[in-house]
Amino acid sequence: QVQLVESGGGLVQAGGSLRLSCAASGRTFSSYAMGWFRQAPGKEREFVAAISKSGGRTDYTDSVKGRFTIARDNAKNTVYLEMNSLKPEDTAVYYCAAGSFMVQVARLVNYWGQGTQVTVSS
């Protein structure tokens, strides 16, 4: 059983930055690929970013490439999402996710965090 807890969401103006954190329980954090998804009101949950077990490989959805960076610190059992140059279109609840393989699609997710709200004003 893995528990994922997100933090760092909030209200920010367009062009600003936020850093999301996801803290995982247990001693097997490095055995999970990690990722971030988001869901805006009335929209389907979508993939945002993913990182491999070792942190050596990352992937992003096209709309955030060059603006967002996913990273992990296995010693701290934590995965991060650094979000820069935020746009109103980025407004959503952001969810941390863990799986056995790169979690680029929801079907590969074994565990979900509770979500954290990110609101970008124009």
Distance between the termini: 40 Å
What's the overall average pLDDT, rounded? 96
- Largest beta sheet, briefly? 7 strands, mixed
- Helical fraction: under 10%
Q: In percent terms, what proportion of residues is strand?
A: over 45%
Number of DSSP helices? 0
- Low-confidence stretches are none
Estimate the global geometry from the Cα principal axes. globular
Radius of gyration: 13 Å
**N to C succession of SSEs:** EEEEEEEEEEE
SS content category = mainly beta
Beta-strand segment tally: 11
Describe this structure in words.
The protein contains no helices and eleven strands. The chain is 0% helix and 48% strand. With 122 residues, it is an all-beta fold. It has strands at 4-7, 10-13, 18-24, 33-39, 46-51, 58-60, 68-73, 78-83, 92-99, 111-112, 116-121.
